[in-house]
């Protein structure tokens, strides 16, 4: 039995997680460029509603860094686990194990990233369900 649909869904999900990793990397880049952000916030629009105290700015930068690391590490782990599941699917070797990996990865990463990885997780979830539900056709001999 060919598992082309599951592999395609896994690739789409892995690309979604790669985009999520790029977002995490951008968050880390922003945290490391505090001067640029501080300059933009203080001289950007001149709107008095955008004035931040230094404590609020430091707290936001710390949260940005921590969130960036969580998103980046989670996305890389999801990509690696997706590749492992697709290798297990290749040639219909262990579709049940691959399905469990897809489903567990989708759920855990969606929770870990507080919903940021839910779109890519949907593709992994569908691929995992298809791995568990689809059974090889049996031929009847008479």
Automatic annotation (TrEMBL):
Chain ranges of the DUF4064 domain: 2-111
Lineage top rank: taxon: Bacteria
Transmembrane segments: 7-30, 66-89, 96-126
One Pfam family cited in the UniProt record for this chain: DUF4064
Keyword entries, A-Z: Membrane, Transmembrane, Transmembrane helix
Protein name: DUF4064 domain-containing protein
């Amino acid at each position: 039995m060919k598992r082309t649909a599951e592999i395609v869904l896994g690739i789409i999900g892995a690309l979604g997680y790669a985009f999520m990793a790029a977002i995490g990397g951008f968050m880390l880049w922003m945290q490391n460029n505090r001067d640029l952000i501080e300059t933009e916030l203080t001289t950007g629009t001149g709107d008095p509603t955008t004035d931040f105290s230094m404590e609020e700015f430091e707290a936001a930068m710390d949260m940005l860094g921590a969130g960036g690391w969580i998103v980046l590490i989670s996305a890389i782990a999801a990509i690696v686990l997706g590749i492992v599941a697709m290798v297990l699917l290749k040639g219909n070797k262990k579709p049940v194990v691959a399905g469990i990996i897809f489903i567990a990865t989708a759920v855990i990463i969606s929770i870990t990233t507080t919903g940021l990885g839910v779109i890519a997780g949907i593709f992994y979830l569908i691929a995992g369900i298809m791995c568990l539900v689809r059974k090889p056709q049996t031929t009847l001999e008479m």
